[in-house]
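anyone seen this seq b4? input:
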Amino acid sequence: MTAIAQVRDTPGRLPADHRSRRQPAFGLVLHWPPSDTDTDNLRATAGRSMDRMQDDSNPDVPPDYWPACGYHKLEVDARGWLRPTDDWLRGFLERPEMALVDESCRAERRLHRALQQAPGRKVAAAELDAIRDADARENYRHFLAFRDGVLAAGTLEAWLLQVFRSGRIVVPPLFIDLVIQALVRHGLEGSTDAWELRAAEMLFRPQRVTLHEGRVLAADRETLDLQHETQGLGELGRSLLQAQVPLKRLALQVLNEDNADRLRARAAQSAAGSAFLLDLTHEIERDIGHGVSFRLVNSRSGLKALARVLARWVGHLLGVTVRIEPLQRIDDPQWRWHVGLDAEASRLLDDLYEGREVEPERMQRLISLFKLSFDDPAQMRADVAGRPVYLAMATTADGSFRLKPQNLLLNLPLASPS
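predicted toks r here
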C-alpha cells in the first residue's frame, strides 16, 4: 500500500512575508526564454491557427469535470463555501491509498467497512493498532486527522485557511491538493472557457515549462513524464520500450479552438492531468517577409486565463475583489509590494527588492509578471492603499513550475484578516 505522506513531495515552508516597504530604484523586464532552453523533451502540434481573435464559442463545460475530486458530493452553504458530506468522505476510502487490497488484514477490512457505513464515526486507537500493515495503519491515521480537521472547521475553505495560517504544515500534501482542486472546481462553476479549465490545474498540479518555436508552453509534469515513459500506451508502452522496440515519438497538442472540446471531455472523465499544453506566451511575432515582422498580443494566452482563475481564488477565500493582468515588465519607482506565486519567484523578487545581484540565468527563468489591483483600496493596508501588487512566477533550473496559491492568501496587504 502506498503511504499517503509519500504521494507528493512535501511542500516547502510557508513563504516569507514580503512586506518590505523600501522603494527600489529599478525596473523589472521579462526575459523569457533562457537562451539554452531544452526543447528536445517536448514537441507540440497546434492543429489550425491558435491566434484567431474571437471569443470562445465552444459548448458549455460539462456539468461535472474532475469527478475524482468529489466536488459534486459537497454541499454549498449560504456563504458559498463548501461543506463536507459523508459521500465526499467515502470517496477517500476508494482512493488507492485507502482501498482494500488482497493483503488487507481482517482488522483493516472491518474498519474500512465501518467507515464506509459511517464516515464520521469515532475510531478507537485499538482499532488502528490492530491493522497489521504499517503503511495502511499510518494512512488511516492521516485520513482520520484530516477528516476531523475538516469536520471541525465546517467548510473546506475554513480548513484550508487554518492550515496555511498555522505557520506549520503537517497535513500530507495529497489532502491539500485535493481540497484546492475542489475549491478551484467550485470557482469554475458555470465557466465555458477551456483555457480557464486548463490554467486552473496549475493551482494543484506541477508543470514543466519550455520553449517551442518561440512559444512558452506549460505541460502537466506528471502526464508528460508518464507519456515519455510509455509513449502514451500505458504499461504496454513501458514494456515495449523496455524491450527496446522503437516507438513513434509522441506529439502533444497545444490547447486551441479546435481541440478545446476534447480537453473538456477528458476533464469530465478523469481527476486532472491534462494532456494538452497551455500557451503562456505574451506576444507572437509574425514575419511577413522582406525583412518585415510585427508582434501581436496573444489573444489566447493561458496567462490571461490563469489571471482570471487567480482573481476568483482570492475573491472566494479572502472576500475581496481584485483584478489581475499579465505584464511583461515592471517599471515602477514606487514599487511597494510583491508576491511570488512560487518558491523561485518569491526568492527572486525578494533579492531584487533588497537590491541584491541576481544572476542572468535566474532572471531568464521568469515566466511572467502580473499586476494585481484591489477594486476597493480601503481593503488594503493604509500605507499601500491604491498601489498595485506585483506578482511573478518562475521555473526551477530544470524547467519545473509549482504554483503556490497559498501565497496569495497569506501575503496580500489586507487591511484586516478575512
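Residues 248 and 298 are 31 Å apart (CA to CA). The radius of gyration is 23 Å. kinda curious what u guys think
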